[in-house]
Amino acid sequence: MNIVELILDEEDAIGIEAISVVESPAIEEDFIALKNQEFKLAEVDKEKRILMGAALIPNKPIYRRNEDNEYYIYFSRDTVRKASELFFINGNQNKSTLEHQMPLTGLSVVESWIVEDKEKDKTRHYDMEVPIGTWMVSMKVLNDDVWNNYVKTGKVKGFSIEGYFADKAERPKDKTIKDELAQIEEEEAEYLLGQIKGIIKKDKRLKSGQRTEMESYSDYPDSVKNNAKRGLELNEKVNNKCATQVGKVRAQQLAQGKPVSVETIKRMFSYLSRAEVYYEKGETTDCGYISYLLWGGKSAKSWAEAKIKSLENE
Length: 314
Fold this sequence. Notes:
The chain starts with a strand and ends with a helix. The protein has two domains: 2-167, no CATH class; 174-201 and 215-312, no CATH class. The radius of gyration is 27 Å and the shape is elongated. The protein has a four-stranded mixed β-sheet with strand order 5-6-1-12, with no helix packed on it. By secondary structure, the chain is α+β, with helices and mostly antiparallel strands. Helix 3 (174-202) runs antiparallel to helix 6 (262-279) and helix 4 (222-237) crosses helix 5 (245-255). It has eight helices and 14 strands. The chain has helices spanning 77-89, 144-151, 174-202, 222-237, 245-255, 262-279, 287-294, 297-312, and strands spanning 2-7, 15-22, 32-34, 50-56, 62-66, 69-74, 96-98, 102-104, 107-114, 135-141, 158-164, 166-167, 216-217, 260-261.
């Protein structure tokens, strides 16, 4: 079974956006509900309502399943530390959820540290054995419903992070994706331009003011149009940072149902076949995913392939 290291993207270092209180923490480390007596503050008789637990444990394989694929992910000590720092740099200490679904109010991370010494660390006082490099947090719970109905009843037992990381082994950084896709698109543009120049040069009958008519088709399915429209919408949400001008023009053409030439169909199939690896990640803010939709997505690839075969058999 594959083991994949997740890392922080240096270009878009978002990291962890929230901490969720859950019944089954992926890192399999329950938090401890800290009360006043455990702090030995005898003069205080009111529960402090503080939860302490591990947010991220380095080098611990975490089982994941995506459709038919099973694999493990893990975070290095360096990534765990960076994630803990970014969590506060981005001001996310008051962001929390219940079971990764319901946003919560009244929960705040009030303490955070990286375990540096297993014997002398604060975790030993609470009989918690966690590896060196573990990111520990203490969370204040001012939400009565969460404390009374979930913490005290034992319905939630630990922390689980919510955030964005890159796949070190398989997923290039966004900038790399954008550069590679741009290179593919430029290759397609240069090829098509070369074909057009060749047609014009060979057409001895071309006169001033006349055009060379190229065979074109617009019988692609609505799903192609919808994919292109979706790509344009998603690209707008990320300030149109994805795709070259070639890709954007192609999207406008497909979204409006305009006819495309045989050579364009061939280049569509070429581009979609080569760039499909970036689309498979399925993240709607990634340029790989957006650019693939701009060219019509998987349905465009299927249509282009079928159209090419049909034309070859004529």
